[in-house]
Amino acid sequence: MSLRSAKDRFLGAPWVYDTIRPLVVGGIDHQDLARFCGIGKTDRVFDLGCGTGQLLSHIHCDKYLGVDLDSYALERAHRFSTDRVRFLEGDDWDNAYRELGPTVVLMIGVVHHLPDEAFQSIVRRLRQSLRTPPRIVTFDVAFFPGALINNLFSKFDRGKHVRNTQDYEKLFKNNQLEITSRETLFTRLRYVRYIGYHLTFKQ
């Protein structure tokens, strides 16, 4: 196993991801992230790549479905399970997605793990499955001009497809997604930053 693979496996461990990683990047402000997501009490939320479900401590919605490929992360996420909050492991989520009929799709820390083709495939599934397409919220590490420390952290992120803001926006445009808002969010110590977008499907 390479040094990078070992590092990625360590950082991907659920407890490390929840506890150690936020300290390393300067403290992730989940309350601020929840504010940015703009989830309302009547929203039905589809959280694609939900991980350990940490955001659930900071949002209130009508229904929530979290999906992830990592069974260990989902074991930790199940502490949030209720009759309105449930989780699904794997990539076979289309039927559950249609049943939920989400008003919001969260892709928090997801896009920088996806090559262009994989992102295109997901967007197609999100679009084709519902008569009324939902709002999409993305939130990712990115390269910023002159942000040397941030860019170093981004270079060594587990995601292999970290982009600059222009390339994220080009990706969205190429997939018929319209940017309705964007925001740069910082960690508490402000040496690492993230780019967040609200997206809608073009008619």
How would you describe the overall organization of this protein?
The protein is of the alpha/beta class and 203 residues long. The chain has one domain (3-201): Rossmann fold (3-Layer(aba) Sandwich), CATH 3.40.50. It has 8 helices and 8 strands. Strands 1, 2, 3, 4, 5, 6, 7 and 8 form an 8-stranded mixed sheet that branches. The chain is globular, with a radius of gyration of 16 Å.
Largest sheet: 8 strands, mixed
Mean pLDDT: 90
CATH architecture: 3-Layer(aba) Sandwich
Number of strands: 8
Low confidence ranges: 1-12
In the residues, how many domains can be counted? 1
Q: Which superfamily, in CATH terms, is the homologous superfamily?
A: Vaccinia Virus protein VP39
The CATH topology is what? Rossmann fold
**How would the global form be characterised?**
globular
Radius of gyration: 16 Å
Derived structural class: alpha/beta
H/I helix tally: 8
| SSE string | HHHEEHEHEHEHEHEE
Offer a few descriptive terms:
203 residues, alpha/beta, Rossmann fold, 8 helices, 36% helix
Task: Summarize it.
With 203 residues, this protein is α/β, with parallel strands linked by helices. Helices cover 36% and strands 25% of the residues.
